[in-house]
Write a structure and sequence with these properties.
The protein is 42% helix and 21% strand. It is of the alpha/beta class and 238 residues long.
């Protein structure tokens, strides 16, 4: 997955630097515009993945920028998070009515801002995955699995899985909540002809958990059913 690009639109230099520093620390590519007109030009030139948009801007205000982008079929799917000063409740409502996806009130904590950006980009990736392969995209928490493309993503990061790890993950994510014995996993993923033992399954599950950053003591994704096998924890998905 390509590095997500975030356009920050604000005429206050310290806000721009604060946002830029914290987003780049998370691995995002940050673009900057200091007024509404430049923001529209930047969107057309660079097509960012998300726009952080201040309301009070020179030349064209943020509400007009938002309205213009959301009325354009080419750019209306780009998520917009409005930056609003305290007491701008009316402008916030107007921004949401014009299609803004979220808003953050100034002053804001960098952690909250990064979390909002991640959430919106994650939602965008989910929609893209579902659109690409219809009902064959599985979405559970921060994990997206696209079986037909042999791809899996955790948050914004593409997972580098071996073929057997991916097959294990695809099988289990397609049946959340179902307990698979080691013997069944061995049969379905390695096949009837495989002469190895069930410890092969345990090794691959351990490696898969590491890549999912999943704690076996407090799992979010793969749970050990003691004495039986494994199951994928149920969550939102197809």
């Amino acid at each position: 997955m390509k590095t997500a690009r975030v356009l920050v639109v604000d005429d206050e230099a310290y806000i721009v630097e604060l946002v830029k520093f914290n987003l780049e620390k998370e691995g995002y590519k940050v673009l900057v515009a200091g007024d509404g007109l430049s923001a529209l030009e930047m969107v057309k030139k660079e097509r960012p993945d998300l726009v952080l948009l201040d309301i009070m801007l020179p030349k064209i205000d943020g509400l007009e920028v938002c309205r213009t982008l959301k009325q354009d079929d080419e750019y209306n799917t780009i998520p917009i998070i409005m930056l609003t000063a305290k007491g701008e409740e009316i402008d916030t409502v107007l921004g949401l009515e014009m299609g803004a996806d979220d808003y953050i009130k100034k002053p804001f904590s960098p952690r909250e801002m990064v979390a909002r950006v991640k959430a919106r980009l994650r939602a965008l990736r989910i929609l893209e995955a579902e659109k690409a392969v219809g009902e064959k995209a599985y979405v559970i928490k921060d994990l997206i699995v696209v079986p037909e493309k042999y791809e899996a993503f955790l948050e914004e990061e593409k997972l580098e899985l071996t073929p057997k790890e991916f097959e294990l993950l695809s099988l289990m994510v397609a049946h959340p909540g179902k307990v698979f014995t080691r013997e069944v996993l061995l049969e379905k993923v390695w096949g009837y002809e495989y002469s190895g033992d069930t410890r092969t399954v345990d090794v691959h599950i351990r490696h898969l958990r590491q890549k999912l950053r999943d704690d076996s003591n407090f799992p979010e994704y793969i749970e050990t059913v003691r004495g039986v096998g494994y199951r994928f924890i149920e969550g939102r998905g197809k």
